[in-house]
Design a protein that fits this description.
- By secondary structure, the chain is α/β, with parallel strands linked by helices.
- It contains 17 helices and 14 strands.
- The strands form 3 sheets. Strands 1-2-3-4-5-6-7-8 form an 8-stranded parallel β-barrel, surrounded by 8 helices. Strands 9-10-11 form a 3-stranded antiparallel sheet, with helices on one face. The protein has a 3-stranded antiparallel sheet with strand order 12-13-14.
- Helix 8 runs parallel beside helix 9.
- The radius of gyration is 27 Å and the shape is elongated.
- The two termini are about 40 Å apart.
- The protein binds zinc ion.
- The site of zinc ion (ZN) has 4 residues, from loops.
């Protein structure tokens, strides 16, 4: 059997602290999810904020291949007629074929939060669902705080589900709104609910107990049809159930593939695309989709991994669109480096390997972290095999930082560079010294390489490393850059933070320009 995925990245996921989706962003996420065949995509809560209303106006005109757009809303208020509810009116006006309505199923919330009677709450659920059905919509019912409510008053929690069912709801979704449920309870409750209702059941878990993915998988195994969650587990507090491992587990381990055939191979890519749109650095350790999810570090095992990857990996990484690139580190042996070089498309002569390895180990001892900076590693390997960077040369750069009484600090950088036989001298400002340097560098090189326009610095991280050689602290800078399609990371190390930043920046532009000519193996 196949499970059914209901994505709520655009509503519940957007509750994550610091996450802001513009209308444009939301449309991009919708298309990314549509392209891998997610059947239901919840666009937001029309009426709750102007942005969501505007999103639905645009999104309902988009042509989607697989996904059905859904709107989220709340049942009518106590004492109000469903026909008079402004909330229901806004949800209907959004014009989606499916509407998911949330209602209370924990008696404590009815009496304490809504301050109404248990009977009135049943009527609120029934009237609201019935109104949607009468208006020709498919109605899903999100039973808020279901697991907590069921634990304390199972009779009442079930009577709420029955009220929604009798009014015509097509899915009864059990929500673990506080996120504290454990897997064995999740499975048991789903089984018991299935014995009490005949409408297909869904689940919606939050991750406050660290069990959202496990709960979702066990609930699906126990018979829940629909699994709600968000891409990369985005959501408030500790997040929602992460659809990435859920989809992979259901597909690869339980034979309940929730996406159309051929979509699973695009899971990693889609997880990263959504992270990109959300402007959140993808978690390198995310199960299945993380960059390091299949990256082996132990040098001792590498030759065995190359021979029998199935002995060291729980799935074939390519099945979810990931790869088992091997992390290079000072533990790495010869086999590790050769394999890495092959992966990057760099041809290493066997007799050169020993020399390259010792150079690499020396650099890592000085603070370079190549396992986090594939682009720098590739440039290093290329140089080690005789390649010379002839795209540009920076003669000098100079940075001034001025502190103004009124406007605060302002930095100014001047770069003198040569490219394509010409010399360019450019000055630019920035809020900080690295920003100013980046701007001046882009101006100077942009004369020859207009493609720099597309490249954008997406992450800049500084770490101070312990001064182990008595020379004082060393600074390591990691820079992440993207051209809108690919992303790459470079590293710079120095006792001087500006020098380390310059090194990482120059490497990042070098790599980006090479990518444009198709040279690197990445
Ligand atoms: Zn939720």
């Amino acid at each position: 059997m196949r499970n059914e995925i209901y994505d709520t990245t655009l509503r519940d996921g957007a509750q994550r602290a610091g996450l802001q989706f513009s209308v444009e962003d939301k449309l991009k996420v919708l298309h990314a999810l549509d392209s891998i065949g997610v059947p239901f995509v919840e666009g937001g809560w029309p009426g709750a904020n102007p942005r969501d209303t505007e999103f639905f106006r645009l999104a309902t005109q988009e042509r989607l291949q697989h996904s059905t757009l859904t709107a989220f809303g709340m049942t009518r208020r106590a004492g109000e007629a469903a026909g008079d509810s402004p909330v229901l009116r806004e949800v209907l006006d959004a014009g989606t074929p499916v509407v998911c309505l949330v209602g209370k199923s924990w008696d404590l919330h009815v009496t304490e939060a809504l301050r109404t009677t248990l009977e009135e709450n049943l009527a609120m659920v029934a009237d609201s669902i019935a109104m949607l059905v009468a208006e020709g919509r498919r109605a899903f019912f999100d039973a808020e705080h279901f697991f907590d409510g069921y634990r304390r008053n199972p009779e009442y929690a079930l009577s709420v589900l029955r009220a929604a069912e009798e009014a015509g709801a097509q899915r009864l979704v059990l929500c673990d709104t506080n996120g504290g449920t454990l897997p064995h309870e999740a499975a048991r409750v789903v089984q018991e609910v299935l014995g009490a209702v005949s409408t297909p059941v869904g689940v919606h878990f939050h991750n406050d107990a660290g069990c959202a993915v496990a709960n979702s998988v066990l609930a699906a195994e126990a018979g829940a049809l629909q699994v709600q969650g968000t891409m990369n587990g985005y959501g408030e507090r500790c997040g929602n159930a992460d659809l990435v491992p859920i989809v992979a587990n259901l597909s690869l381990k339980l034979d309940r593939p929730p996406l159309p055939d051929g979509s699973l191979e695009r899971l990693t890519e889609t997880a990263h695309v959504v992270a990109e749109i959300a402007n959140i650095v993808p978690d390198p350790h995310q199960p299945y989709a993380g960059r390091n999810a299949f990256a082996h570090k132990a040098g001792l095992h590498v030759s065995a991994i190359v021979r029998r990857p199935d002995a060291y990996e729980h799935i074939e990484p390519g099945s979810v669109g990931n790869s088992n690139h091997i992390v290079v580190s000072d533990l790495a042996g010869r086999a590790n480096l050769l394999r890495k070089a092959e992966e990057l498309g760099v041809d290493l002569q066997p007799d050169a390997v020993a020399g390259i390895l010792s150079k690499l180990k020396d650099l890592e001892a000085r603070g370079y972290a190549f396992e986090a900076a594939d682009a720098s590693l590739e440039l290093f390997l290329r140089r080690a095999t005789g390649w010379r960077q002839e795209l540009f040369a920076v003669e000098t750069f100079r940075i001034l930082v001025e502190e103004h009484e009124k406007t605060g600090a302002l930095a100014e950088a001047t770069v003198k560079a040569r490219s394509n036989g010409e010399r360019h001298i450019e000055t630019a400002e920035g809020h900080g010294p690295v920003g100013a340097l980046d701007n001046a560098l882009r101006l100077a090189l942009g004369r020859t390489y207009p493609e720099l326009e597309k490249m954008e610095l997406t992450d800049y991280r500084v770490r101070v490393l312990d001064g182990t050689k008595g020379t004082g602290a060393v600074v390591r800078v990691l820079i992440e850059m993207t051209d809108g399609e690919r992303e790459w990371t470079t590293v710079g190390v120095s006792e001087n933070i500006i020098q380390a930043s310059y090194e990482a920046l120059a490497e990042a532009y070098t790599y980006g320009l090479l990518l444009d000519t198709g040279a690197p193996g990445a």
